[in-house]
Amino acid sequence: MAKSFVLGLLLVLVGVEADGGLSPHYYKEICPLAEHIIRQNVEAVVYRDPTMAASLLRLHFHDCFVLGCDASVLLDDADGIVSEKNALPNLNSLRGFEVIDSIKAVLEEACPPLTVSCADILAIVARDVVHLRGGPSWEVYSGRKDSLTASLSEANKRIPAPNFTLDMLISNFHDQGLDIVDLVSLSGSHTIGRSRCVSFKGRLYGQDPIEPFEEHDHYHRYSEFFSSLRSVCPPSGGHDTLVPLDLKTSRRFDNRYFHNLVRGNALLQSDDELVAGYEDDEVASLVWAYARDQELFFRRYRSSIVKMGSINVLTGEQGEVRHHCRYVNAYYH
């Protein structure tokens, strides 16, 4: 009993939870400057290129939705590994890999080798880019290990598509252990970032603009929005032209995304689906609530992204801490 007590005390002191789970103090003793180093590097990157904030946040999402938050999205092709970077939602779309590489290299020098996992870096970077763009901050629970494999097929299957219906979105999030509040809250990540014309062009030329809400004359769904998008995304060509997901404050993390939704200015079909019902619909009600109250959105977002960050994590003896985020240690030279 005495030995068990001492062991438990030691685990608490070094910031590791006794059950092998994640802890907000995981690096307190083994690399106390880890989060500070990550923050400094992220600040420099986002200062040079503010659009990189959304890209780095997206890496965390696309990682967690495939096999769990295990940095599988960072792996390159290797013997027995087919990279998730080749999946349709990621190919020529995901970016920021070199930023993660750079941060990892600094941490390998500043901390004991093989201490800070690539999966934890993704989670901490996601928190930092949101905060740097004016959004909320939160405690990141660390202690994730990195996967030894990747799954191209799961990446093609699990990452929500821009043309998903509401039922498809709800089912997709439910499969990850996330509920409707998480769906709407995490969709608010689209308050920053850009999308290629190919992701929403079908809306511009395949259907008429959606009519206004009858009961809310002060929130109009403007047909002019589609007209402005057609001028940027012609019927043929321009597939890779980038358009801000939030035309008003695309570089600031705020609740403007939800204002856009209730006005009919949703860029992606999957975003517009969140307000496809009536205001008393559970999903649409959350959209309206977040449009009215930014602090409510921020509180819910904190909770939901921490929840997402714990999807199928590897801890303890599972996985490994990679020396280089692009390769499992067995293939790293």
Concise summary:
With 333 residues, the chain is an all-alpha fold.
Question: How does this structure look, described?
Answer:
This protein has helices at 2-13, 34-48, 52-64, 97-110, 118-132, 152-158, 166-175, 180-187, 201-206, 224-232, 256-262, 269-272, 282-292, 294-308; strands spanning 194-196, 242-244. The chain is mostly helical. It has a two-stranded antiparallel sheet. α2 (34-48) packs antiparallel against α4 (97-110) and α13 (282-292) crosses α14.
Secondary structure topology:
Elements: H1 2-13, H2 34-48, H3 52-64, H4 97-110, H5 118-132, H6 152-158, H7 166-175, H8 180-187, E1 194-196, H9 201-206, H10 224-232, E2 242-244, H11 256-262, H12 269-272, H13 282-292, H14 294-308
Antiparallel strand pairs: 1-2
For the largest beta-sheet, the strand count, sense and barrel status come to: 2 strands, antiparallel
Shape: globular
Distance between the termini: 45 Å
Indicate the structural class: mainly alpha
Widest sheet, order of strands = 1-2
Number of strands: 2
Order of helices and strands: HHHHHHHHEHHEHHHH
> Strand portion, in percent?
under 5%
Number of separate helices: 14
Low-confidence stretches: 1-20, 208-222
List the defining traits of the structure above.
mainly alpha, 14 helices, globular, two-stranded antiparallel ribbon, 333 residues, 2% strand
